[in-house]
Design brief:
mainly alpha; two-stranded antiparallel ribbon; about 5% strand
Length: about 120
């Protein structure tokens, strides 16, 4: 009986990892609140716009999942990433609470860390 080798993904070959790192920074941490170590990004700012803002934030987050899928990430990893995005979308849709949640939760940073951990386990 032959065993199927695990699927490996390479996010470094075509610059994908750098794009995802920028996306995570831009959406979650691009702006530092003066006098604090707290940051927020476009996703937090967009959550202040009722309805539409949350959808734009979700679309940016789904790009990371699409890249992981394109590079062969396993379903379990994609599912965990999707749960992070779902939580961010649902709570991010509430104008003020969504902003505060985005400052604490940082779904795209979490998803980038999941991808990095997966890459580390592969090597």
């Amino acid at each position: 009986m032959t065993t199927v080798p695990p699927i490996t993904i390479d996010l470094t070959r075509d610059g994908t990892l750098e794009r995802l790192e920028f996306l995570a920074w831009f959406t979650d941490s691009a702006i530092r609140i003066p006098g604090t170590s707290r940051t927020f990004g476009a996703d937090g700012f967009l959550s202040l716009i009722p309805g539409v803002g949350s959808l734009f934030g979700t679309a940016m987050s789904l790009y990371m999942v699409a890249e992981a899928l394109r590079h062969g990430a396993p379903a379990r990893l994609l599912g965990r990433m999707g749960l992070n995005i779902a939580a961010d979308t649902v709570l991010g849709a509430i104008p003020l609470i969504g902003f505060l949640f985005d400052m604490a939760f940082k779904a795209n940073q979490r998803n980038l860390n999941l991808l990095r951990q997966h890459l580390k386990e592969q090597s």
